[in-house]
Amino acid sequence: MSPMPHALPATSVAPASVDPTSVEPISVERGAPILLFDSGVGGLTVLGELRKILPQAPVIYAADMAGLPYGTKSEAQVTARVAGLLGRMTERFAPRLVCIACNTASTIALGMVREVLEVPVVGTVPAIKPAAAMTRTGVIGLLGTQATVRQAYVDRLEQEFAPGKRLLRYGGPGLVEAAEAKLRGEPVDLSAIVRAAEALRAMPGGEDIDTLVLACTHFPLLEEELAQAFGPGVRFIHGAAGIARRIAQLTEGQEYARQQPDRALFTGSGEFPGAYGDALARYGLPEGGRF
To answer: Is 216 labeled as catalytic in the residue annotation?
Structure first.
């Protein structure tokens, strides 16, 4: 997306913001895929970065459209759904690695998923640490789903990596849906984006926000609209490139052989790929189906 014309252009930075648990590389079949999982199509932002450094890696992209959105669900609902789906998908597709390309699912269910799966699991957490290093004013905005912003996991990240900073959180209703619509080629509901910007700016210290953590993999799809709503001088930060680097690290030395075209799998009963067809093709997912 082209940058908005600001006095200080909004820039996007994608640092390593994944769970640091180390897993030794294991011997795997050359055709074993990397399984990327999200509640919808936000995880395609991670896939885009993964393609840059591991273009030869076979990929299955799984979108839980039947469960979308996760941000309005309870912690128990998210944990049960994510662990159950990934357990069945891992058994069926035998991936070499699973990536939960979803902040909400990761901050709630990552521990449980790691307990039940026998393959390396990479999670996605809000990029608070690099945001704290970037901010000049000391005021950081965190834009996520309603479920993500209330998690104790985020509290711990703030306490550990942003002491002395002010972290203002907002769970933006309608933003996931806006990102999904944009990827389908439909008009974006700008009102949800404007409300998010106004809500963060209205918080004590909000006018001094100069760094915004996009704590949902859907939200980089809306970066152009967010830049317009927040105005000049705000830098955006998310973890897609860092997640891709972590996947590459954990699979270092493994061999790849794409034995069939990469594909996307959707849960639910709607038409596939429907309006998502063009976007999926752009991300190298020419085939798909239902799970």
So the answer is: yes
